From TrEMBL, chains A, B:
It is found in: Cell membrane. One of its GO terms (biological process) is metal ion transport. The chain crosses the membrane at residues 17-38, 45-66, 78-102, 133-154, 195-217, 229-250, 302-330, 354-375, 410-432. This is Potassium uptake protein, TrkH family. InterPro entries: Cat_transpt. It comes from the Bacteria. PANTHER family: KTR SYSTEM POTASSIUM UPTAKE PROTEIN B, TRK SYSTEM POTASSIUM UPTAKE PROTEIN TRKG-RELATED. One of its GO terms (molecular function) is monoatomic cation transmembrane transporter activity. Keywords: Cell membrane, Ion transport, Membrane, Transmembrane, Transmembrane helix, Transport. GO terms for cellular component: plasma membrane.
Length: 449, 449
């Protein structure tokens, strides 16, 4: 691969670029949020509060230790909004560039995010990718903001400036899967307003699928047979997870008066669907998380861990990882030597990457849960929920975040950062580097199970 | 492979043999335990109680809904003992035969459990394997029973017949990783008696490593460089897990007065070691499980899920599966194309089996935990502990088993059965069957993470 500039050179190691960029944004964000002018009461926020909030915003997580609307000033909220936009756009752009690099190097077929024939990546290519991602993001956000503003003004009687501000804030927060809201109850007050909740859910899904998938779908949505492996796995897995989540939510929570059972009957299906969208990995909630049944909490852990699409604003191990592993298991239980997705064969190295991303992520969550469990007196179920939510940059919580001791909050800060850069960098680092095979040892099997 | 007899023919599908044999044993055991003579009070035990106990014994799990020593008569206890011996011996023999079949078919190098040069498996081969496994089991059990009887008689003042009975019962239960005891507190009363607890822990480890590994170690324990992949992974992973478990137990429970903190200081290290042995997957307990810290309970979940050695009496996904996946991740993060264990390369098909066994097992435990969570009002942590314990045929419990509603107990019955036959049959079925590749599609990668 020919690389022409220092910037391009840096992209050889996208993991480092992403980690450094996000860390810088967090440092700047922490400094700004610690200014007296950022707090509503003009008192300087504590460093841990500023650090936690900045990390949560940059990593588009949405976990909070203070109520966003009441604690922060107008300036503070603007900082948060800009951090979300920078974090979301940054991750999406870099991830799309990684996809492009991979597609040149290792035969990843994604319909020409950049249409050139050569294997070289030029500065012009990068500019084109950045321009397209920015254009895509801002367009979707503008449409969503307009829809929300209309509804807030006309349906909820807000003054236009207030409706516009709330519309833009929720739009940016939703598209970037950040989950920061302007109400202490997140979106619970809109659970019976499909206009608001479905618009936000739509923005979440669009942002969470990822730019390369949308770019390909824009051209080939009528011809699914031509979809690349990336698009095929992302679309199918997302559909399956949304349907499963909605059905589970109805079955488990329909009789719970504190959640779905308390929603007007005609709005329940929409409410269940929206509740199934949010764990992957927007982090808004339209139902009271603390009141969910234990089985729903656990199922939500799983949905959060799986997360959304690669190269989008969602977190988690990603539907590509989960979906690919499902294809692998399907092939294995049928005794098939190869793993086929549509009309393509997925190489074994790719399967091994998915395995590694998934199992390392399990390891990190387990380690963090053990640590948090030792640091706090909270129950195991709410701790697991909190660590998964932080690692998968979801932002849902049973409400314990603010009352956790500082060391436990710092564990969450670390989890949000690792969870945001981890799976992508691990996967891209692995995909971009492959040692030549210098020698080959004789083969031998073992039995497993 | 040449197969000569109907019996041998059946072995082509070992999964079916194992499932049918275990199911038959459970049916017979249930019928016997439901006889009035089996209960201490001469009243017929309920069918669910009889079924649960028989399944727990045959699947060498050790979960109980009634106290073994007080509820069952001498006849009932003898039935349980025989079911344990039959279940343990049956699984070990069949698993060893599977190893033998695999070693002939797919290049599994295990130092000649049956030493013949041909690829055919004869009836004589099978007789030889059965004889060796039985001889091995009974010898170890006899030594362990003798050691325990001595101690019970001399150190605990029991009359010789009582000491002998208790010695034999605990020996068989320990070697077969069954975890049935004769005291309501399992082994808590022996926590400061290293003679008893270390002898039982030793029997558990020997039985849990599996026959093929011992057979190979008997010849090559001085020359680790010659070990097969199976033996190497089993021994190393077991050592790592035992050390990790002991250290974790000391760190987490040393300050807990209801568990390790209540043990005499000079006996704590031994107690921690024994407590680390039991979750994998014997199921005796020398500390009060219900009093363990939440983080210890969760860590124990993980140790139980991993389990013991393949082709032994232990349950879980097995250390071979876990260890092999660790090797895979290690190779992947170093950017190595091949997975090397010692001086051998593990084929990708083998890696995929390990992945499938591990992830299907996770799926089953998740499904069962969700179901149990909906069926009961118990907390999530104790339910997860119970389902993992049943699936991995461990038998540890926080004490909720007896008070669970019948449907939840039946879920545990199903889990014990699936957990006992599942991973082995899945793995062997996959390894013995491989479809020829009729065509090959073009290759394409996706990105993950
Ligand atoms: K989020
Ligand atoms: K057991």
């Amino acid at each position: 691969m020919r690389v022409e500039r220092p910037l391009l050179n840096a992209l050889r190691n996208p993991s480092r670029v992403i980690a450094v960029a996000l860390a810088l944004a967090i440092v700047v964000g922490t400094a700004l949020l610690a200014l007296p002018v950022a707090s509503a009461d003009g008192q300087r926020a504590g460093w841990v509060t500023a650090l936690f909030t900045a990390t949560s915003a940059v990593c588009v997580t949405g976990l909070v230790v203070v109520d966003t609307a009441t604690y922060w000033s107008w300036f503070g909220e603007l900082v948060i909004l800009l951090l979300i936009q920078a974090g979301g756009l940054g991750i999406m752009t870099l991830a799309t560039l990684v996809v492009m690099l991979l597609s040149r190097r290792v035969g990843l077929r994604v319909r020409s995010v950049v249409q050139t024939e050569t294997k070289a990546v030029t500065a012009a290519d990068i500019r084109r990718v950045v321009r397209r991602v920015v254009l895509f993001s801002l367009s979707v956000e503008a449409v969503v903001a307009a829809l929300l503003t209309l509804r807030f003004a006309l349906g909820h009687g807000q003054a236009l400036p207030q409706a516009l501000y709330s519309g833009v804030f929720h739009s940016v927060s939703a598209f970037n899967n950040a989950g920061f809201g302007l109400h202490p109850d997140s979106l619970v007050r809109y659970v019976e307003d499909p206009w608001v909740s479905l618009t936000i859910a739509g923005a979440v899904i669009v942002g969470g699928l990822g730019f390369p998938v949308w770019f390909e779908l824009a051209r080939t949505w009528r011809r699914p047979r031509q979809w690349s492996v990336l698009t095929r796995i992302t679309v199918y897995t997302t559909a399956v997870l949304l349907v499963t989540g909605t059905v589970f939510m109805v079955v488990a929570e329909n009789s719970n008066p504190d959640t779905l059972g308390g929603v007007d009957r005609e709005h329940r299906l929409v409410a269940a669907f929206v509740a199934a969208v949010m764990p992957r990995t927007a982090g808004f909630n339209n139902l009271d998380i603390a009141a969910l049944r234990p089985e729903t909490l656990f199922m939500t852990d799983i949905f959060m861990f799986i997360g959304g699409g690669s190269a989008g604003t969602a977190g988690g191990v990603k539907v590509t990882t989960f979906g690919l592993l499902a294809y692998v298991i399907w092939a294995e239980t049928r005794g098939e030597r190869d793993v086929h997705v549509g009309t393509r064969r997925v190489p074994t190295a790719n399967q091994r990457q998915a395995l590694t991303v998934a199992l390392l992520s399990v390891g990190i969550v387990v380690l963090a849960t053990l640590t948090m469990s030792a640091l706090t007196t909270q129950g195991f179920d709410v701790i697991l929920f909190e660590t998964v939510s932080a690692f998968a940059t979801v932002g849902l919580s049973t409400g314990i975040t603010a009352s956790l001791p500082v060391p436990a909050q710092l564990v969450l800060v670390a989890l949000m950062f690792i969870g945001r850069i981890g799976p992508l960098t691990v996967a891209s680092a692995m995909a971009l580097r492959e040692r030549p095979r210098l020698y080959q040892l004789p083969e031998e099997r073992t039995i497993v199970g």
